[in-house]
Design goal:
Layout lengths: L2 H16 L6 H5 L17 H26 L6 E6 L5 E3 L12 H6 L2 H6 L24 H11 L46 H5 L5 H10 L38 E3 L11 E3 L21 H10 L7 H7 L6 H12 L23 H10 L19 E3 L9 E3 L2 E3 L4 E3 L21 H11 L6 H11 L3
Antiparallel strand pairs: 1-2, 3-4, 5-8, 6-7
Length: about 475
C-alpha cells in the first residue's frame, strides 16, 4: 500500500468521523489519529448517499438519546402550583434528576467529594448532557418552532438525521413575551406571535426607531448555516436559505434550541449549548460560548461569521458566510438587542429584593438563604442576579471522566454567571441544559458548593427564585 493510499484512507476515515458517518468509530481510532481542528471540505459521498445513511441511522441514534434521558431524569409532567411563565405556561416542579440506587439527597450531602467520586455516586443527570448525536452536532430546533416557521415562511428547519430530544414541557413557553426597556408601559409587545420576516414591521412600526427596525429585520433574515445551506454538505432535504438569529433566540428570548460550541476541539470535548435568553443583555458584559466576547456587537458579528459554522472559517466560506457591516448592520442589530428587557417581577423592589408585604413566608426565608447560607449571591448579586464574571465549578472533582453517547464527560471549565432575573421563563438550566428544573439546580449546587441545605431550605430557595 502506497503512502498516498494510506493518507487518502486516513482522510476518508477522518471525514466520516467528523460528520458522524461512523457512529462511535471516533472513539475507537482516536488514539491512532491525530486530532484535526478542521472539518472536511470535500464530500466523500453523494448527498443522496448521505441522506440514506443518516436517515437509516436516525431511529437508533434518537432511541439511544431518549434512553439516556429516561435513565437520567423523571420526565413526567408535574406543574408547580400558583406559578406560571410570563404568558401562562406551567413551570415544572420537583427534582427530576434520578439518584443512584440506595442513596438519598441527604446521604449525598453528608458525603465528602472524595467519597462521592470513589463510590461513583455522582448522579448521572449532573454529568454534561450530550447533543442528541454528539459526533455529528449542529443546530437542532424543537418541533413547535419548526412548525411555526414553516407555517409563516415556508422555510423548513427539519433535519433528516435528527430530532430534538428534551420534552416540550421542560422548555420555555412559545411564543415568549417581548418586553422593551424603552416602552415598559406597553408590557408584552409580541401580541402572542412569533416575530418573523412576515410580521416584524407591522408589530414594531411606531414603537421602535428606524435603526432598531432595521436591526429586527436582520435578526429575522435567514442566512446560510452549517446544517442549513445550499451545498450538498447540509442536513436539510432541500437546498436551504439558512437560519435566523431569532430561530434560536425566538422573540429575543430562547426556545432552548441546541448546538455545540464552536471553540473546543476535538469533537467529543465540545459542549452542548442551551441557547441563553437575550433578555437583559444591556446589563451583561460577557458573551459567546466560552464568554470571551466583550460586547453585544462582538457577539452579533461573531455569530454569523463563525458560530454558525462551528467556528470554522474555511467551511463558512464554502457554505456562504454573511459578513455583516459593523458600523450599520451590526450596530442596528445590537441596538435592538440592548432594549430587550427582563419580564416584570412585581414582588421585587428597585434593588432587586423582595417587598415584604408582597412576599410569602417561604419566599422571604428563601431570600435569606440565597444571600446567606446558600452562597448564591456570591455570584448572582442583586438587582439583576449576576456578577458578569466567569466561575469554574470544577465538577470533575465528583466523577471519573467517561464517554457518554459520544460526549467525553469531563471538566466544564469556566461558566458565565447568567442573570437569574426571569429565571422561571428559561428552562432547562446550566449552560448545556442538563438541569430540567430549578429544584434540580438547587440540588446540584448544594453538592457542588457543599452547602448542606435542609429539605425546607431547598424548597424555600426555589420559592424565592420563582419571584425573580
Amino acid at each position: 500500500m502506497t503512502r498516498i493510499t494510506v493518507l487518502l484512507l486516513q482522510f476518508s476515515f477522518a471525514a466520516l468521523i467528523a460528520v458522524g458517518a461512523v457512529p462511535g468509530l471516533h472513539e475507537i481510532i482516536a488514539q491512532d489519529t491525530p486530532p484535526n481542528s478542521y472539518a472536511p471540505v470535500v464530500a466523500t459521498e453523494s448527498f443522496e448517499q448521505t441522506v440514506q445513511r443518516m436517515s437509516q441511522a436516525k431511529p437508533k441514534i434518537m432511541q439511544r438519546q431518549l434512553n439516556l434521558l429516561e435513565k437520567r431524569y423523571d420526565l413526567g409532567k408535574k406543574a408547580a402550583e400558583n406559578v406560571t411563565m410570563s404568558r401562562g405556561k406551567a413551570v415544572q416542579k420537583g427534582v427530576r434528576v434520578r439518584l443512584p440506587e440506595g442513596v438519598t439527597w441527604e446521604d449525598l450531602s453528608k458525603m465528602s467529594v472524595a467519597e462521592i467520586h470513589n463510590k461513583a455516586l455522582w448522579p448521572k443527570g449532573f454529568l454534561p448532557l450530550p447533543h442528541p448525536n454528539h459526533p455529528e452536532g449542529g443546530m437542532l430546533f424543537p418541533k413547535f418552532h419548526i412548525d411555526e416557521i414553516k407555517k409563516q415562511e415556508g422555510r423548513d428547519l427539519t433535519r433528516f438525521d435528527l430530532d430534538y430530544d428534551i420534552p416540550d414541557h421542560f422548555l420555555p413557553e412559545f411564543p415568549p413575551a417581548i418586553y422593551l426597556t424603552t416602552r415598559p408601559d406597553l408590557g408584552d409587545v409580541s401580541k402572542g406571535k412569533v416575530i418573523t420576516n412576515q410580521n416584524y414591521f407591522e408589530l414594531f412600526n411606531g414603537i421602535l426607531n428606524p435603526k432598531q427596525i432595521e436591526g429586527v429585520r436582520l435578526l429575522v433574515t435567514p442566512f446560510a448555516q452549517q446544517q442549513f445551506n445550499h451545498t450538498s454538505d447540509r442536513r436539510s432535504l432541500k437546498p436551504h436559505i439558512g437560519v435566523t438569529c431569532f430561530d434560536c433566540h425566538v422573540n429575543g428570548h430562547t426556545n432552548a434550541a441546541t448546538h455545540l460550541v464552536g471553540d473546543i476541539r476535538p469533537q467529543q470535548f465540545r459542549h452542548r449549548i442551551d441557547v441563553p435568553s437575550l433578555r437583559g443583555v444591556n446589563i451583561q458584559r460577557l458573551f459567546g460560548s466560552q464568554r470571551a466576547l466583550k460586547t453585544i456587537e462582538d457577539f452579533t458579528e461573531f455569530e454569523q461569521r463563525a458560530a454558525y459554522f462551528d467556528g470554522d472559517p474555511v467551511i463558512a466560506a464554502k457554505k456562504g458566510v454573511n459578513v455583516l457591516e459593523r458600523a450599520t448592520q451590526v450596530h442596528a442589530m445590537a441596538e435592538f438587542e440592548a432594549i430587550l428587557d427582563f419580564p416584570p417581577a412585581p414582588k421585587l423592589d428597585l434593588f432587586g429584593k423582595l417587598i415584604p408585604e408582597k412576599a410569602t413566608e417561604a419566599e422571604l426565608r428563601g431570600e435569606k438563604i440565597f444571600f446567606g447560607k446558600g452562597k448564591c449571591a456570591v455570584c448572582h448579586s442583586a438587582p439583576f442576579y449576576t456578577d458578569n464574571l466567569m466561575h469554574n465549578l470544577k465538577t470533575e472533582r465528583f466523577f471519573k471522566p467517561q464517554m457518554v453517547n459520544g460526549r467525553m464527560a469531563s471538566a466544564d471549565g469556566p461558566i458565565k454567571t447568567f442573570p437569574l432575573r426571569g429565571i422561571k421563563d428559561s428552562p432547562p438550566y446550566l449552560h448545556d441544559g442538563r438541569l430540567l428544573t430549578l429544584a434540580d439546580t438547587v440540588e446540584f449546587f448544594n453538592l457542588v458548593l457543599e452547602l448542606k441545605l435542609t429539605s425546607q431550605e431547598k424548597d424555600d430557595l426555589v420559592a424565592f427564585m420563582l419571584c425573580l
